[in-house]
Amino acid sequence: MKVIALVFLLVAPATALLPDLLEKLWPEQEDGVFDGVAKIPYKDLLNDNSYIDPFLLQSMKTYGFFYVVDVPEYSAALEHDYMKQFYDLDEDVKDELAIRRHNPANKNAYRGYCPGLDDVENTLQYKNLYNIGPHETRGASVESDNVMEKLRYDCQEPNVWPETGNCTFDKGFKETFQAGFEIRRNIGRAFIRSIARAMNYPNLPALFAEDEFSAMGLRKYPIRKKINSNMYSDFDGTLLRELEHIDSTVTVLSTFNNGGLEMLYKNQYRAVPVTGENSFIVNIGKLVDDLIDNKVPAVRHRVTEVDFDRYSITYFLGPQFDADIARSMTGKLTDAGQKYTIFGEWIKDYLGAIELFYY
Asked: In terms of pTM, does the model score above 0.70?
């Protein structure tokens, strides 16, 4: 990987020092399979420092992901602690925030609490999720028979937040995850800009100018009391908590210090180093892969069974409602384009199958 880095440094600023850049992007090299994954400083990514582009692109092409590191004023430990406090609340308190499918008395269909079911006979994946979006308020309701206009309104559903009577917790939880949402959104958009520069796709960022459908999920995977025989991998027989899959859009992931995440590399699933206290994992899904002409892989990944309560946060950045997803950046018909023209049409069918933004 360092040989590759020497080649790419030809495009780095003339004032950049080789040893400093190598240490910055690949610190503390060890003998692990993912040691070559790029570690991109948050400020350099957000400031559109073009020297990062070839490192980021090479990491994505080789491994399917990279890390964002050195995030100022961010504490993974604080987020982790608030997640545990939330999931320790009484069920009747959390039920006030449950999505409509689980509590018909509530109006929120997508944003809020979605309890998992530990039912090995009728369910596959057992996880609890609290879904947060980009909207805190919503405009006047749409009086229209147009399905797409109605969907545009519905997907601007405002967030719901805990009201436990503990003002310190309620305020801290809301402010922490509002800030966390903004950090992840910044990372997702800056990643799109970097890929656009590296691939010479100047029109790509315009597809992500708005983010009506972005979502951040606070996930808890509780310890299963029974083994679900349906959760053994068809690939290699490993017992899983999250089935093998690829994502759809841009993913920004926090695993904290919780192991279990594995990514497919050279036809073998390998354990991915945790994000720890101050970093994030970034990867893309099938929809974005098609938009950029399949030049960067949508990495297949999974979560293996663990013997502890596992917490993680997933953030998904999708294209804006009116984004053209039918054609790639070079004009090729995408897989989605065989049925859809804009992202809003795609998400309509997607949300018809699930109650949360799992794209």
From this structure: yes
